[in-house]
Amino acid sequence: MQKRAVIITGKYVQDPEYTYPLYRLQEEGYEVDVAVRGKETVLGVKGETVNPTKDIPELKVQDYNVLILPGGARAMEYIRQDKDVLKFIMNFYKTGKV
């Protein structure tokens, strides 16, 4: 089975909480998608550029083994209000995946 992960984030994510998991997963051989609403390029709190590969509506739970939700109160303010993101997280959780 191919190892695939998705990072769901948004503007003002805590930079290291995004970049560290991204690079560590890649080092372990994961194909990593980064999802941001509107597939909009955003910046982290300290200026790290987040280049999304997916828009939220494109995500399918069966495509991923791992879900990462990087922290940052400001990024989470936007994400926690997104009904599509919440539905994806709930469905991902129901599968018993990480």
Low-pLDDT stretches are none
How many individual helices? Answer: 3
Major sheet: 3 strands, parallel
Overall structural class, as computed from helix and strand content, comes to alpha/beta
Q: What percentage of the residues does DSSP assign to strands (E)?
A: 15-25%
Question: What's the number of extended β-strand segments?
Answer: 5
The average pLDDT is 94
Would you list the SSEs in sequence order as H and E? EHEEEEHH
Percentage of helical residues?
25-40%
Q: Radius of gyration, Cα only, in angstroms?
A: 12 Å
Characterize the overall form: globular
Cross-sheet strand order for the largest sheet: 2-1-5
End-to-end separation in angstroms reads 15 Å
Please tell me about this protein's structure.
By secondary structure, the protein is α/β, with parallel strands linked by helices. It has three helices and five strands; from the N terminus they run βαββββαα. It is globular. The mean pLDDT is 94.
How is the topology of this model organized?
Layout: E1 4-8, H1 15-27, E2 31-35, E3 42-43, E4 49-50, E5 66-68, H2 73-79, H3 83-94
Parallel strand pairs: 1-2, 1-5
Antiparallel strand pairs: 3-4
